[in-house]
Design a protein that fits this description.
- This protein is 11% helix and 30% strand.
- The protein is mainly beta.
- The strands form three sheets. The chain has a six-stranded antiparallel barrel. Strands 9-12-11-10 form a four-stranded mixed beta sheet. A two-stranded antiparallel ribbon has the order 4-5.
- It is globular.
- The N and C termini lie far apart (50 Å).
Length: 244
Protein backbone atom coordinates (compact mmCIF):
# COMPACT_ATOMS: atom_id res chain seq x y z
CA UNK A 1 0.00 0.00 0.00
CA UNK A 2 1.42 3.44 -0.86
CA UNK A 3 2.53 5.70 1.98
CA UNK A 4 0.65 8.96 2.42
CA UNK A 5 2.04 12.08 4.03
CA UNK A 6 -0.10 15.06 4.96
CA UNK A 7 1.14 18.60 5.41
CA UNK A 8 -0.77 20.99 7.70
CA UNK A 9 -2.42 23.88 5.89
CA UNK A 10 -2.86 25.94 9.05
CA UNK A 11 -2.70 26.13 12.82
CA UNK A 12 -5.33 26.98 15.43
CA UNK A 13 -4.95 29.85 17.88
CA UNK A 14 -7.42 29.10 20.64
CA UNK A 15 -7.97 30.11 24.29
CA UNK A 16 -7.60 26.46 25.38
CA UNK A 17 -3.97 26.03 26.37
CA UNK A 18 -4.34 22.47 27.64
CA UNK A 19 -6.69 19.57 26.93
CA UNK A 20 -8.40 19.71 30.33
CA UNK A 21 -11.43 21.98 30.01
CA UNK A 22 -11.94 21.78 26.26
CA UNK A 23 -15.60 21.08 25.33
CA UNK A 24 -16.06 17.41 24.53
CA UNK A 25 -17.61 18.21 21.17
CA UNK A 26 -17.72 21.22 18.87
CA UNK A 27 -20.71 23.55 19.16
CA UNK A 28 -21.29 22.99 22.87
CA UNK A 29 -19.67 26.31 23.86
CA UNK A 30 -20.61 29.19 21.56
CA UNK A 31 -18.18 31.58 23.30
CA UNK A 32 -15.22 29.33 22.44
CA UNK A 33 -13.72 31.29 19.55
CA UNK A 34 -10.48 30.63 17.71
CA UNK A 35 -8.48 31.88 14.77
CA UNK A 36 -7.26 29.50 12.09
CA UNK A 37 -4.02 30.89 10.68
CA UNK A 38 -3.43 29.55 7.17
CA UNK A 39 0.17 28.65 6.36
CA UNK A 40 2.00 29.42 3.10
CA UNK A 41 1.55 28.54 0.30
CA UNK A 42 -2.12 27.90 1.11
CA UNK A 43 -2.80 31.40 2.46
CA UNK A 44 -4.03 32.76 -0.87
CA UNK A 45 -7.28 34.66 -1.10
CA UNK A 46 -8.48 32.76 -4.16
CA UNK A 47 -8.21 29.45 -2.28
CA UNK A 48 -11.09 30.62 -0.04
CA UNK A 49 -13.23 32.37 -2.63
CA UNK A 50 -16.87 31.45 -2.03
CA UNK A 51 -16.34 29.99 1.44
CA UNK A 52 -17.87 33.13 3.00
CA UNK A 53 -21.27 31.96 1.74
CA UNK A 54 -21.28 29.07 4.24
CA UNK A 55 -22.19 29.47 7.91
CA UNK A 56 -20.23 26.42 9.10
CA UNK A 57 -17.18 24.46 8.04
CA UNK A 58 -15.68 21.07 8.76
CA UNK A 59 -12.19 21.23 10.23
CA UNK A 60 -9.98 18.15 9.89
CA UNK A 61 -7.13 18.25 12.37
CA UNK A 62 -4.41 16.33 14.17
CA UNK A 63 -4.83 15.39 17.84
CA UNK A 64 -1.29 16.62 18.45
CA UNK A 65 -1.82 16.53 22.23
CA UNK A 66 -2.75 12.83 22.14
CA UNK A 67 0.04 11.34 20.04
CA UNK A 68 1.68 8.37 21.72
CA UNK A 69 3.39 5.15 20.72
CA UNK A 70 1.08 2.37 19.69
CA UNK A 71 -2.68 2.21 20.00
CA UNK A 72 -5.35 0.25 21.81
CA UNK A 73 -8.46 -1.30 20.24
CA UNK A 74 -10.72 -0.10 23.07
CA UNK A 75 -11.10 3.17 24.99
CA UNK A 76 -13.26 4.44 27.86
CA UNK A 77 -15.47 7.32 26.64
CA UNK A 78 -16.62 9.92 29.20
CA UNK A 79 -20.24 9.49 28.11
CA UNK A 80 -20.18 5.97 29.57
CA UNK A 81 -18.76 7.05 32.90
CA UNK A 82 -15.12 6.45 32.04
CA UNK A 83 -15.27 2.84 33.22
CA UNK A 84 -16.84 0.95 30.33
CA UNK A 85 -14.69 0.11 27.32
CA UNK A 86 -15.90 0.25 23.73
CA UNK A 87 -14.10 -0.03 20.41
CA UNK A 88 -11.95 2.95 19.51
CA UNK A 89 -13.77 3.25 16.18
CA UNK A 90 -17.07 3.60 18.06
CA UNK A 91 -15.77 6.81 19.67
CA UNK A 92 -14.25 10.18 18.81
CA UNK A 93 -11.34 9.65 21.16
CA UNK A 94 -8.08 11.31 20.18
CA UNK A 95 -6.13 8.13 20.92
CA UNK A 96 -6.48 6.49 17.52
CA UNK A 97 -4.24 4.59 15.08
CA UNK A 98 -4.16 7.82 13.05
CA UNK A 99 -4.81 10.74 15.43
CA UNK A 100 -7.15 12.65 13.12
CA UNK A 101 -10.25 14.49 14.29
CA UNK A 102 -13.00 16.54 12.71
CA UNK A 103 -15.19 19.32 14.04
CA UNK A 104 -18.10 21.24 12.55
CA UNK A 105 -17.67 24.87 13.66
CA UNK A 106 -19.25 28.22 12.87
CA UNK A 107 -17.42 30.40 10.35
CA UNK A 108 -17.65 33.98 11.60
CA UNK A 109 -15.38 35.60 9.05
CA UNK A 110 -12.39 35.41 6.75
CA UNK A 111 -9.50 37.85 6.99
CA UNK A 112 -7.03 38.48 4.19
CA UNK A 113 -3.84 40.44 4.86
CA UNK A 114 -3.02 41.46 1.29
CA UNK A 115 -2.43 40.38 -2.30
CA UNK A 116 0.82 38.63 -1.36
CA UNK A 117 -0.98 36.24 0.96
CA UNK A 118 -1.93 35.94 4.60
CA UNK A 119 -5.34 34.50 5.45
CA UNK A 120 -7.22 33.75 8.65
CA UNK A 121 -10.53 32.10 9.40
CA UNK A 122 -12.45 33.24 12.46
CA UNK A 123 -14.30 30.34 14.09
CA UNK A 124 -16.76 29.86 16.96
CA UNK A 125 -17.96 26.85 18.91
CA UNK A 126 -14.54 25.23 18.73
CA UNK A 127 -13.24 22.25 20.70
CA UNK A 128 -9.62 22.68 19.63
CA UNK A 129 -6.40 22.96 21.60
CA UNK A 130 -4.19 25.94 20.92
CA UNK A 131 -1.57 25.02 18.32
CA UNK A 132 -3.65 22.27 16.70
CA UNK A 133 -2.39 21.49 13.15
CA UNK A 134 -5.16 21.67 10.55
CA UNK A 135 -5.15 19.26 7.61
CA UNK A 136 -8.17 20.44 5.63
CA UNK A 137 -11.25 22.68 5.54
CA UNK A 138 -14.54 21.70 3.92
CA UNK A 139 -17.86 23.57 3.77
CA UNK A 140 -20.64 22.14 5.90
CA UNK A 141 -23.62 21.12 3.74
CA UNK A 142 -26.83 20.82 5.79
CA UNK A 143 -28.65 18.66 3.23
CA UNK A 144 -25.84 16.10 3.19
CA UNK A 145 -24.18 16.42 6.60
CA UNK A 146 -27.27 16.56 8.85
CA UNK A 147 -28.86 13.13 8.44
CA UNK A 148 -32.49 13.07 9.53
CA UNK A 149 -33.33 10.17 11.82
CA UNK A 150 -29.70 9.20 12.45
CA UNK A 151 -29.04 7.14 15.60
CA UNK A 152 -26.41 8.52 17.96
CA UNK A 153 -25.70 5.21 19.70
CA UNK A 154 -24.66 5.73 23.33
CA UNK A 155 -24.38 9.52 22.72
CA UNK A 156 -27.88 10.23 21.46
CA UNK A 157 -28.19 13.68 23.07
CA UNK A 158 -25.84 16.50 24.07
CA UNK A 159 -24.28 16.33 27.54
CA UNK A 160 -26.79 17.55 30.12
CA UNK A 161 -24.40 18.88 32.78
CA UNK A 162 -25.35 22.46 33.60
CA UNK A 163 -23.79 23.00 36.98
CA UNK A 164 -24.02 26.34 38.77
CA UNK A 165 -20.67 28.13 38.84
CA UNK A 166 -19.78 30.59 41.60
CA UNK A 167 -16.66 32.72 42.03
CA UNK A 168 -14.80 33.56 45.22
CA UNK A 169 -14.27 37.27 46.01
CA UNK A 170 -10.57 36.85 45.12
CA UNK A 171 -11.40 35.34 41.75
CA UNK A 172 -13.96 38.06 41.01
CA UNK A 173 -11.40 40.78 41.76
CA UNK A 174 -8.88 39.34 39.31
CA UNK A 175 -11.52 38.82 36.64
CA UNK A 176 -12.72 42.42 36.95
CA UNK A 177 -9.17 43.59 36.30
CA UNK A 178 -8.80 41.29 33.27
CA UNK A 179 -12.11 42.00 31.54
CA UNK A 180 -10.58 45.03 29.81
CA UNK A 181 -7.95 42.87 28.09
CA UNK A 182 -10.05 39.71 27.69
CA UNK A 183 -13.70 40.79 27.31
CA UNK A 184 -16.17 38.18 28.44
CA UNK A 185 -13.58 36.18 30.38
CA UNK A 186 -15.90 35.58 33.35
CA UNK A 187 -18.70 34.26 31.12
CA UNK A 188 -16.21 32.14 29.17
CA UNK A 189 -14.98 30.46 32.36
CA UNK A 190 -18.53 29.89 33.61
CA UNK A 191 -19.57 28.31 30.30
CA UNK A 192 -16.54 26.04 30.34
CA UNK A 193 -16.98 24.85 33.93
CA UNK A 194 -20.76 24.41 33.97
CA UNK A 195 -20.30 21.45 31.60
CA UNK A 196 -18.27 19.73 34.37
CA UNK A 197 -14.93 19.05 32.64
CA UNK A 198 -13.79 16.64 35.33
CA UNK A 199 -12.81 13.15 34.13
CA UNK A 200 -15.78 10.83 34.41
CA UNK A 201 -14.23 8.81 37.22
CA UNK A 202 -13.94 11.99 39.29
CA UNK A 203 -17.45 13.16 38.42
CA UNK A 204 -18.80 10.03 40.10
CA UNK A 205 -17.10 10.94 43.37
CA UNK A 206 -18.15 13.48 45.94
CA UNK A 207 -14.88 14.37 47.58
CA UNK A 208 -13.67 17.94 47.29
CA UNK A 209 -10.64 18.05 45.04
CA UNK A 210 -9.01 21.08 43.47
CA UNK A 211 -8.44 21.38 39.74
CA UNK A 212 -6.62 23.84 37.55
CA UNK A 213 -7.41 24.77 33.97
CA UNK A 214 -5.41 27.13 31.78
CA UNK A 215 -7.29 29.35 29.31
CA UNK A 216 -6.02 32.45 27.54
CA UNK A 217 -3.15 33.58 29.82
CA UNK A 218 -4.68 32.66 33.17
CA UNK A 219 -4.87 29.59 35.37
CA UNK A 220 -8.38 28.98 36.67
CA UNK A 221 -8.37 27.17 40.02
CA UNK A 222 -11.62 25.49 41.02
CA UNK A 223 -13.21 22.67 42.94
CA UNK A 224 -16.45 20.74 42.89
CA UNK A 225 -18.68 21.32 45.86
CA UNK A 226 -22.04 19.79 46.58
CA UNK A 227 -24.37 21.17 43.93
CA UNK A 228 -21.90 23.07 41.80
CA UNK A 229 -18.45 24.42 41.02
CA UNK A 230 -16.59 27.00 43.09
CA UNK A 231 -13.84 29.02 41.42
CA UNK A 232 -11.30 29.61 44.17
CA UNK A 233 -8.83 31.73 42.22
CA UNK A 234 -7.66 33.09 38.90
CA UNK A 235 -3.91 33.58 38.47
CA UNK A 236 -2.03 35.25 35.62
CA UNK A 237 0.26 32.63 34.10
CA UNK A 238 3.25 34.97 34.19
CA UNK A 239 2.67 35.57 37.90
CA UNK A 240 2.12 31.93 38.77
CA UNK A 241 4.52 30.73 41.47
CA UNK A 242 7.06 28.15 40.26
CA UNK A 243 6.33 24.49 40.97
CA UNK A 244 8.04 23.24 44.10
Amino acid sequence: MPEYRFEPIGVIRSPFKEKFGIPRQAGLMARARATLEILPPYDREEAFRGLEQFSHVWILFVFHGCIRDGWRPTVRPPRLGGNRRVGVFATRSGFRPNPIGLSAVRLEGIGVSGPEGGCRLYLAGVDLLDGTPILDIKPYLPYADAVEGADGGFAKAPPTADLPVAFSPEAKAVLRSRESTIPGLTDFIADMLKADPRPAYHACRRERRRFGTRVFDVDVQWEFREGGIWVTGVVDVENRPPAS
